[in-house]
Amino acid sequence: MGRKFFVGGNWKCNGTTEEVKKIVSVLNEGQVPSSDVVEVVVSPPFVFLGLVKSSLRPDFHVAAQNCWVKKGGAFTGEISAEMLVNLDIPWVILGHSERRLILNESNEFVGDKVAYALSQGLKVIACVGETLEQREAGSTMDVVAAQTKAIADRVSSWSNIVLAYEPVWAIGTGKVATPVQAQEVHFELRKWLFANTSPEIAAATRIIYGGISINVSHVLVHLLLSFGCFYNVQYAL
């Protein structure tokens, strides 16, 4: 059986209660392939997880945008994997470039977060990607291989990981990697998994492209389901 199609939408730090309700309404009305063909995951800010979870159609799933690296405790402002499990949130995004670059999350720290989230029963959208400077220096694969290795060193199963290649220079800039550029990195990532994990993991792991920013409108569902991508969603309601 082939890999199931995967489409995700990262809403980032955007939205109000009314805007979120409108987006969910649009999604709920969309005509989409069955869930055995495509997996659709949306990722609202944490404060809206409960609202989206309770009102979103059951064949679409919800992801948190981050979670803490270990069990909860005296970590002000953090959200633990256990909390997400308690809320029945199945997915979490980890390693997004904004957290790597702005909050200085290292490859190792992201790897630890992925491993802990998996250990608590969450599924992970693990993000990797290079900056413009790294691409122009010809080090794209060195960068994404190091990011992927930090995960591979800490996990034994990839069945609940989707690997999202998000070139940093294409996030929120209006620039988009060409299909050839994206496919080149996807090919090299799968080759890396083949050589450094197993042929089975390389064949089964879903690798998607992220970095496209779209505005939410009444054509949102058609946009989301036209491509096998991970979208960064902006608001225009």
UniProtKB/TrEMBL annotation:
Keyword Ion transport: no
E.C. designation(s): 5.3.1.1
SUPFAM superfamilies: Triosephosphate isomerase (TIM)
UniProt catalytic activity: D-glyceraldehyde 3-phosphate = dihydroxyacetone phosphate
Primary location recorded for the protein, binned into one broad class: cytoplasm
Pfam families reported for this sequence: TIM
Identification of the protein by name: Triosephosphate isomerase, cytosolic
Localization terms from the record: Cytoplasm
Assembly, per entry: Homodimer.
Keyword Isomerase: yes
EC supergroup of this enzyme: isomerase
The entry's keywords: Cytoplasm, Gluconeogenesis, Glycolysis, Isomerase
Pathway(s) annotated for this protein in UniProt: Carbohydrate degradation; glycolysis; D-glyceraldehyde 3-phosphate from glycerone phosphate: step 1/1; Carbohydrate biosynthesis; gluconeogenesis
One Gene Ontology molecular-function label: triose-phosphate isomerase activity
Domain of life of the organism encoding this protein: Eukaryota
GO process annotations (BP): gluconeogenesis; glyceraldehyde-3-phosphate biosynthetic process; glycerol catabolic process; glycolytic process
GO CC term, one of those recorded: cytosol
Family per similarity comment: Belongs to the triosephosphate isomerase family.
Organism: Citrus clementina
Organism lineage: Eukaryota, Viridiplantae, Streptophyta, Embryophyta, Tracheophyta
Classification via InterPro entries: Aldolase_TIM, TIM_sf, TrioseP_Isoase_bac/euk, Triosephosphate_isomerase, Triosephosphate_isomerase_AS
